[in-house]
Design a protein that fits this description.
transaminase activity, four-stranded antiparallel β-sheet, aminotransferase, PyrdxlP-dep_Trfase_major, PyrdxlP-dep_Trfase_small, eight-stranded mixed β-sheet, binds pyridoxal-5'-phosphate, disordered C terminus
């Protein structure tokens, strides 16, 4: 359906085609080649803070490599934000380690420093200090990094930032992904920039990044024949995908601005509806890329299911917020620290169409349709029940 308004669709340009053409002309098609090195440099220049970058084939594989580099394995516990996409937690299980989930704080929707410290203390008391912390910057919103970095340092636990959704977001004017011992980005098709599929591992520690590149290309020893002294992975980004990335990253600042404008538009045209509250930046330290514009609907009024269905009738895609990991059947046996804040965001949260390629007409149509849900509250309740 060509006229469908998607939640977040790829926003492609001419530069990408030129880079891909270049790759074809020079026959650099494999997961090795000049675009990969150049794309890594582009990301390094953009995020700054002396970070090094390994481009890989997904955000999930970047996170998996981070855990491998920290030596996490069976018997280890990893603390992970519960309110997230499953890809934040799955690599813990790939490594045979145990995931321990932590609730969010109300203001950022990200891991609560309070519950994080509670969890660390309790795990230590139970006999096992956690081996890593995975913090997520959901929908581009920074987590409370000052507090979280302090906790990680005080307890000497490595910190991994899942910034899959947060390229271009800042906390205290510093790029997200550069605070932790390691950070990851995703360039999946729906993220703020895309390489069709792809991701990156970033760290100040160049030894880790070199090791990540080695592991991601099947861990072949530096010899004229195929010798392997450790288990490798086929996780490297292809030169074609990196070419797309080189074109995409030239526009990153514009994309952040466009997505922030989407949020401002929704806020301007929906704030008079008392049932809607916006996911605000808690204070001036927080600068979100607004990967997705998200809202909460007051419980007991119009349901999010009704809104999603109403928009779908007009060929507009909206989605529920992530379902917390501690409520997932697959993670039901994992420990959890917190209350019901993540659950509340899941029960009442809604992600609105947020692409940087939305037109003014698209946004007006979305707002008009959304408003109809609220102007007929009694009807809305009726339709969700029957
Ligand atoms: C998209 C995403 C990932 C995974 O990235 P892929 O490139 O799709 O593997 C991980 N964590 C979060 C929070 C994400 O949104």
């Amino acid at each position: 359906m060509s006229n469908k308004i998607w939640l977040s669709s790829p926003h492609m340009g001419e530069a990408e085609i030129d880079f891909i053409k270049g790759a074809f002309e020079n026959n650099w098609i494999a997961p090795v080649g000049p675009h990969i090195d150049a794309f890594e440099k582009d990301i390094e220049n953009y995020i700054g803070n002396d970070c090094h970058v390994a481009a890989v084939n997904s955000g999930t594989s970047a996170l998996h490599l981070a855990l491998i580099l920290l030596g996490i394995g069976p018997g280890d516990e990893v603390l992970c934000q519960s309110m997230t996409f499953s890809a934040s937690a799955n690599p813990i299980v790939y490594q045979g380690a145990k995931a321990v989930f932590v609730d969010s704080e109300e203001q950022s929707w990200n891991i609560s420093p309070l519950f994080l410290e509670q969890a660390i203390k309790d795990r230590i008391k139970k006999g096992k200090k956690p081996s890593a912390i995975i913090v997520v910057h959901l929908y581009g919103m920074p987590a409370a990094m000052a507090e979280i970095v302090t906790i990680a340092q005080n307890y000497e636990i490595p910190l991994i930032e899942d910034a899959a959704e947060a390229l271009g977001s800042c906390y205290k004017k510093r790029m997200l992904g550069t605070f932790g011992d390691m950070g990851i980005y995703s360039f999946n098709g729906n993220k703020i920039i895309t390489t069709s599929a792809g991701g990156a591992l970033v760290s100040k520690n160049n030894v880790w990044i070199d090791r990540a590149k080695f592991l991601a290309t099947q861990a072949k020893d530096n010899l004229p024949y195929y010798q392997h002294s450790t288990i490798g992975y086929n996780y490297r980004m292809s030169n074609i995908c990196a070419g797309i990335g080189r074109g995409q990253i030239t526009k990153i600042e514009l994309r952040v601005m466009q997505r922030r404008n989407n949020f401002e538009f929704y806020k301007k045209h929906l704030s008079d509806i008392p049932e809607i509250s916006f996911h605000k930046e808690p204070d001036a330290d927080y600068h979100s890329n607004r990967w997705l514009s998200t809202i909460l609907i007051e419980p007991g009024t119009v349901t999010k299911e009704h809104i999603i269905a109403t928009l779908a009738k007009q060929n507009i895609e909206a989605r529920c917020t992530w379902k917390p990991m501690h409520l997932q059947p697959v993670f039901k046996d994992c420990p959890y620290y917190g209350e019901d804040i993540a659950e509340h965001v899941f029960e009442n949260g809604l992600c609105l169409p947020s692409g940087s390629n939305l037109t003014g007409e698209d946004r007006e149509l979305i707002v008009r349709q959304l408003r109809t849900c609220f102007l007929n509250v009694s009807n809305a309740a009726f339709y969700t029940h029957y």
